[in-house]
Amino acid sequence: MNDLKNSYAVVDLETTNSNWHDNGRIIQFGCALIENGEITHIYDQKINPKVPIPGRITALTGLSDDDVKDSPTFEEVAPDIFKLLKNRVFIAHNVNFDLTFLNRELKRIGMNQLNVKAIDTVELSQILFPTISSYKLQDLTHYLSITHKNPHSANSDAHVTAELFLIILKRIQQLPIPTLQMLAKFGKNTIRETNLVFKTILEEREKNSRSSVLPAYLYEKNGLILRKKDFHVSEKIDHTTKYPQTREAKKELLDGILDYRVNQSKLMDNIYHTSQHRDKVKKWNLIEAPTGAGKTLGYLLPLSYLVNIDQKLVIATTTKVLQQQIVEQSIPLLNQVTDNEYHAEIVKSSYNFIDLDRFYEALDNYRLHSHTAILKMKIIVWLTMTTTGDLSELHLTNYNSPLFSIIRHRGESKENTIFSNDDFWLYQQNRYLESKILVTNQAFLARHLDSQYWGKNSYLVIDEANHFAGSLRSASSPTIDFLKLNEYVKKISDILYQNRVTLRYAFTEVTTQLWNYQDLQGMETHFQAIDELMERLEYNIFGTYVQNKVKFKDREDFVSILDSNHKFGRNNPKLFELLSDLIVELSLVSNRVETLFDQYNFQKNFISVELSKVISNLTIENNKLRDVILNLDDLLQAIQEKDTKFGVQIDMRDYYEVNTLKISWRQFDIQGLIEATTERFSQIFAIGAAITIQKDFSHFILDTQLNQNQINQMVILPDANSISKNSKIYLPSNLPDIQSLSSEEYYAMVTKYIVDVLDNLDHQTMILFNSLNTLSNVYDRLMETDVKEKWEILAQGVTGSNEKIKKRFAIGRRSVLLGANSFWEGVDFPKKMLEILIVTRIPFESPEQPDVKIKQDILKEQNLNVFKVDSLPNAILQLRQGLGRLVRTPNDRGVILLLDNRILTKSYGKTILDSLPKGLPVVNEDMDTIKKDINEFLN
Q1: Burial 831-858 (b: 16+ CB within 10 A, else e)
Q2: Other CB atoms within 10 A of residue 785 CB
Q3: Does 795 belong to an annotated binding site?
Q4: 831 known ligand binder
Q5: What pLDDT is recorded for position 1?
Q6: Least packed by Cβ within 10 Å: which of 228, 437, 526, 892?
Q7: Which residues does the record give as ATP binding sites (predicted)?
Q8: In this predicted model, what pLDDT tens digit does every residue of 88-116 receive, in sequence order?
Q9: Residue 289 marked in a binding site
């Protein structure tokens, strides 16, 4: 293999400091030699750095000052290291660290630096294993089943990196030649000589004619290699089997797979019999199923006997993590129990899928920053693997790259494009229509209730039902960004003007006369009217609602004003008139562009590629414009309907730039959506572990605005896990009054208690926060302590996506997870993967959050005690959800450390404690006593 037959030296260094400039020195040199595709030698050399080894490095590597005191210095071993490496290709996992550090050390002692070719296995792994969530060496070895006995030992790390490199070479050799050609093309942007691997293997593969034959499951389209898709859902279901009615029948079904649970059995029977005897009016079934009751299988099993292509099971939950948990864990478990092959799809918007036409166009778009080249290479390989085109399969920490804004699917139908027959979104829609079990986000369901995906007379399960009201409100809370609206209109105007010649000659001889070139001139009048109306509307809103509400000293900053008394626009007839006129003008433009699409479809078989691109770009911008028109119309209706309760948030990037206005409104009334949901489904099961307050559903009913006539039953299943025996709540006795602390003092206090726990208790720990801002600040402080050397610290919004850090935590042995929002609920960790839960404060919602303030202001208008009917119940439910992370089965044990003494010092504390499982011990002692008791309790 030419260069690839040469020798490779796979190197790993352990150092006193990762920064050479901070007096970092090498304490261990590890090297694995590869000759002709085999690992031939492993070198391990400890080195006396002549400086103290920090404790955190000893904790990480196991090397202390005593371990290296009799070892040679770097000056003594450097000539041998140089000789070993000088004629070999240098490989490392993060090669820019190891090679740079080694060369600086060589220079420090007066030797020549290594001038060798270098390859990075991190970058190669990112490209060739595109769906892995982490590219740390330890994670890669776990994923690829490479034995890694001593992580952070240089010789062991070098050895497994060599094995990783050989697997990478094999993976590259298996890639189709067109894929390899693209990788070699974009590989010039890789680190150092990493692209050498692609180029060398490509040269050899191109000499072998047999290697150009594609496997049967792949095909080529314009240089891209794609995996063949099955457009039909494949299921194997035995419809002759009957639901297991008796205890014995259920035990037999679960035998060898799961333990029989009384609560789960009751839930199954309730759902099955309720679904068999449906009430056409009273469709809502409110069920509180305690943590560990097995509620997911509890509703999946009985409803699986009733679903068909029209009468589906739709599951609406809150987070992506929960949706994936249902599809990836619960559905396979259902199949194992029933010996069937049910298939479930997660229903999401087109925005989550790749548009192949747009990606193909973006491949040669060098206006994008060069760092996107690696991302392009990653996607090119991923396309040989994916059958869905779902971008979430890439498991990226974020999707902020400009490339994603280009290649996301806009939802338009593809006709006569290069990849119209390969369109992932078309494929996915077909899967939604054919699947009998659908999982989705609660807000997405609310926005798409009229979708045909959901079938007819289907069953709806609202999982984590305590969030349903909030999801409905967020679903009916659109935003109008005047800057973006202006951008959409301008783009349509520019596309029409810049392509006026193409459009003129394209339609001059068409007999339908749906569109002709004179239309271009007529459109200009509408564009001018829109500009004028938008300016007048912006100044009306600014003058009426902003100008007199911003103090002079605040006018240099970002402006945000909240109007929570739902009077926006109602005493402003001019605003109503301007809004109405703007909707009319925007609709005229959009409708006229639509006739152009009609004309295009009428003669699309004779249309040039150039015109197709024009139509495609117009379609994208017109779809955006249509969305804004719908939002404007919603706002107009909200203003018109005097009884509608809503609040408005007005933001401006700059007080002196009126065109940066952004209006967001929050709908409080959700009764219409509740009624529409009731009408759409045959039976609705609202299920959750924490729905009631002291065994009362009143808070849930008030929050969702349900009518008593819509409710069929309210059921509370008893706690069968003896959570009060298997868990405890601890409150340190010397906690300060957190409300008297400054932000900095609070962050320091939380950090101190976390460090105390992690230094003294060896149990997997999760820490729950009320805000991501607090989480981030505490994380920064933890990373300044020695804790980070003993524990892997995973932080939501910092160290990766929610799914990524959840998986890291689940496989970790010494991991601590800092989470907020979705980590309060629904996330399951098996057995001893979570034993200590630190709750940083009682989870009250911030009254300054726009959604919360609008809701609470409206409740005040109804003469309700906001704290009693909203703030306190929501905090109790959230705390109960957090407690539910610990004890999932009768054999689980876990403890909560609550860093908020208000539960003992405030009058409402008793209400909170009374709402927790009966008999749950609450221990209020000093930290030394608490740590001792936790150790005894858990061990």
Answers
A1: eebbbbbbbbbbbbbeeeebbbbbbbbb
A2: 17
A3: no
A4: no
A5: 44
A6: 228
A7: 289-296
A8: 999 999 999 999 999 999 999 999 999 99
A9: yes
551 is in an annotated binding site: no
Residue 173 has a pLDDT of 92
pLDDT higher at 187 or 382 = 382
Per-residue pLDDT band at 402 (split at 50, 70, 90): confident
Q: Kind of pairing, strands 479-481 and 662-667?
A: antiparallel
Question: Could you check whether 2-210 and 258-343+671-716 share the same CATH topology?
Answer: no
Q: Which residues contact 594 (CB under 8 A, 6 or more apart)?
A: 622
C-alpha 639/C-alpha 570 separation (Å) is 6
Output the pLDDT for position 463: 94
Output the pTM of the full model: 0.81
Tokens of residue 90, six digits: 């240098």
Instruction: Identify the pLDDT of residue 12.
Output: 92
Q: Is 292 annotated as a binding residue?
A: yes
Give the confidence band of 731 by pLDDT, cuts at 50, 70, 90: very high
Q: Are strands 662-667 and 646-652 parallel, antiparallel or unpaired?
A: antiparallel
Backbone angles phi, psi at 414, to 5 degrees: -100, 120
Name the residue among 571, 477, 561, 489 with its Cα closest to residue 532.
Answer: 489
Q: Quote the percentage of the chain above a pLDDT of 70.
A: 91
CB-side neighbour CA atoms (13 Å) of 430: 14
- Give me the CATH code for the 2-210 domain, please: 3.30.420.10
For 723-938, CATH number out of 1.10.10.10, 3.40.50.300, 3.30.450.20, 3.90.1150.10 equals 3.40.50.300
pLDDT for the residue 822: 67
Higher pLDDT, residue 379 or 804: 379
291 is in an annotated binding site: yes
Q: Domain map of the chain by residue range?
A: 2-210, 214-243+351-434, 258-343+671-716, 479-667, 723-938
